[in-house]
């Protein structure tokens, strides 16, 4: 998961370095309580890269500290 904008910048740099075909799905996920999912979504849109955003849904549906859910 991404814990800061620097991590997202690293992902973008690797995508450009490796020249991955667009049909290869790349998923980015924010670390819960470290990066706002809306902010990550904004970064993805601004990057104009074909990225998928995944959130830790169980952290939203249940107590974030709960184990085994």
TrEMBL record:
Task: State the name under which the record lists this protein.
Answer: Radical activating enzyme
Question: Which source organism does the UniProt entry give?
Answer: mine drainage metagenome
């Amino acid at each position: 998961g991404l814990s800061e904008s620097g991590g997202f910048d690293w992902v973008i740099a690797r995508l450009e370095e490796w020249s991955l075909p667009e049909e290869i799905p790349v998923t980015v996920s924010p670390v819960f309580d470290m990066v706002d999912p809306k902010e990550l979504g904004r970064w993805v849109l601004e990057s104009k890269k074909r990225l998928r955003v995944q959130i830790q849904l169980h952290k939203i549906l249940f107590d974030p500290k709960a184990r085994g859910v």
